[in-house]
Amino acid sequence: MNPRLHALQPYPFERLANLLADIEPAAGQSPISLAIGEPQHPAAEVAVAALADHLQGMSHYPPTKGGAELRQAIAQWLSFRFNLPSQAVDPERHILPAAGTREALFSFAQTIVDPRPEHAAVAMPNPGYQIYEGATLLAGAQPLYLPCLPETDFLADLDALSPARWDRVQLLYLCSPGNPTGAVADRDYLLRVLELAERHDFVIAADECYSEIYTDEADPPPGLLDVAHANGRTGFERCVVFHSLSKRSNLPGLRSGFVAGDAELIRQFLRYRTYHGATLGGHVQAASIAAWRDETHVRENRARYRDKYDAVMPLLDPLAEVVRPRGSFYLWPALGRDDETLAVAALRDENLRVVPGRYLAREAGGINPGQGRLRLSLVASTADCVEAVTRLARVCQTMG
């Protein structure tokens, strides 16, 4: 067996299942879960229709690079969404379709990381998506955790590493809007990341899978590629971004996304993925093209999440230290109580499932940035989200 498998930690939901294994949910209460960040809104109809119309695509092996029409649709969307010049993104050189961001974020580290240098390292936000850590460990590198705390507006603290430790970094994972904090990196922050990458010779993997869920319709989150291009890095040097239809279009089961950026990095990643075999069938590509070309369903999706935040925040504000995030569909409240104890009480007393914040973070520098917090995924209906926070308030009141 690969000895590096032993370094992998249990996934948050495995830990949650173990925590709650012997807990009897409250009788007489319908179950509500704010635990898993799986979109519950209707799948984009344009994509569903295109999928049904192209089922014959299952009769053919798909190319690893994806079809030209899909890559062109992605290039056009990137240019539209991030205000890039129409010729800035070359569908042949800068884009590679992927079976969702999870697969791509994991396999990218296997392509980029050179495990031979002693103390090879990958930096990542803490708390963050556990795939970053697992990918790092299986690539033979050491994870370096950048705390996301209130004093840095929940962005990964770029000052947490000394210059000597930055010199060890081969790859930096970022996530904006963040999971679980919802924090959005502004242009100055991303420019600083670009400067660090040049100074210390590392690659940036920007997970932007929540980029289309944001609060202000007039102020969408910036992306790494547009900041790079605007600052003279027209080849997107050292930059790769990851996007998905899972959250944007409510299509998590389609397993469709893409990677875009530095042409040489994309070329090497394609070489790896030719062996990896994670390709998109013709029917999936047809659905993806339809989704990337339509913005109506995306605006409607944002409005649904906006309504949930409007309904939930007045109820949650008196209970917790909490910030309405600029993006994503999460809340990251600090409730002044032990997060595991709170998760147990929520299920036992109110049939409500929530995730202890510590499960999404690692202890580093003597602290676990998730301890005492919960991650609340506002994926249920507005009525259920309101009911969930009402139940959470009762739990807090009972705990004192």
Description:
With 400 residues, the protein is α/β, with parallel strands linked by helices. The protein has two domains: 8-42 and 297-399, Aspartate Aminotransferase, domain 1 (Alpha-Beta Complex), CATH 3.90.1150.10; 45-294, 3-Layer(aba) Sandwich (Aspartate Aminotransferase, domain 2). 40% of the residues lie in helices and 13% in strands. The protein has 14 helices and twelve strands. It has helices spanning 12-20, 45-53, 68-81, 100-112, 130-138, 163-168, 187-200, 224-230, 245-248, 263-276, 282-292, 296-316, 339-350, 382-399; strands at residues 32-33, 95-98, 121-126, 142-147, 169-175, 203-207, 239-244, 257-261, 330-331, 352-353, 355-356, 374-377. A seven-stranded mixed sheet has the order 2-8-7-6-5-3-4, sandwiched between helices. Strands 9-12-11 form a three-stranded antiparallel sheet. The protein has a two-stranded parallel sheet with strand order 1-10. It is globular. The model has no long low-confidence stretch (mean pLDDT 96).
- Give the SSE string: HEHHEHEHEHEHEHEHEHHHEHEEEH
Sheet with the most strands, sense and barrel status: 7 strands, mixed
Reading off the top of the CATH hierarchy, the class of the largest domain is best stated as Alpha Beta
Strand line-up in the sheet with most strands:
2-8-7-6-5-3-4
Binned, the helix content reads 40-55%
* Total domain count: 2
CATH architectural name of the largest domain: 3-Layer(aba) Sandwich
Structure summary, number of beta strands? 12
CATH topology of the largest domain, what is it called? Aspartate Aminotransferase, domain 2
Span of the ends, CA to CA: 49 Å
